[in-house]
From TrEMBL:
Domain called Thioesterase: residue spans: 47-116
The entry's keywords: Hydrolase
Taxonomic source organism: Natribaculum luteum
Keyword Glycosyltransferase attributed: no
Protein name per the record: PaaI family thioesterase
PANTHER family hit by this protein: ACYL-COENZYME A THIOESTERASE PAAI
Length: 128
């Protein structure tokens, strides 16, 4: 399975502009360009929490797909929002555990311009 092509063909992630830029060996990275449509605030670009969550979920799933070579539906995701995302966002994900039924991935979301940690997440995905 071409993992990057798989995520490029995901309509919701494509609509948001999520780009999975690296995906191999249980590690994935992705980028999201912040636009007015993704902001929760009219006066300043500030990423809606759902946008940050979706970036984390997509990049987390990509990290696991790179190991199991099949789609991995999300079972659960926990996210802590640490700072406002006021510009483009960047996420890094690493698989913590890849079992026959379930996989766990840690994801960090950063401000792309200054590397401020925006959110910290842990996703659980179905692998089997």
């Amino acid at each position: 399975m071409d993992v990057e092509a798989f995520f490029e063909g995901m309509p919701f992630a494509s609509m948001l502009g999520i780009d999975v830029t690296e995906c191999a060996d249980g590690h994935a990275e992705g980028h999201l360009e912040m636009t007015e449509d993704l902001s929760w605030n009219d006066e300043q670009l500030m990423a809606h929490g759902g946008v940050t969550f979706t970036l984390a979920d997509t990049v987390g799933g990509a990290a696991l797909v790179s190991l199991v070579d099949q789609p991995v539906p999300t079972i659960d995701m926990r996210i802590d929002y640490l700072s406002a995302g006021t510009g483009d966002l960047y996420a890094e994900a690493d698989v913590v555990r890849c079992g026959s039924d379930v996989g766990t991935v840690d994801v960090e979301v950063y401000a792309a311009d200054d590397e401020t940690l925006i959110a910290d997440a842990r996703g659980v995905y179905k692998t089997g």
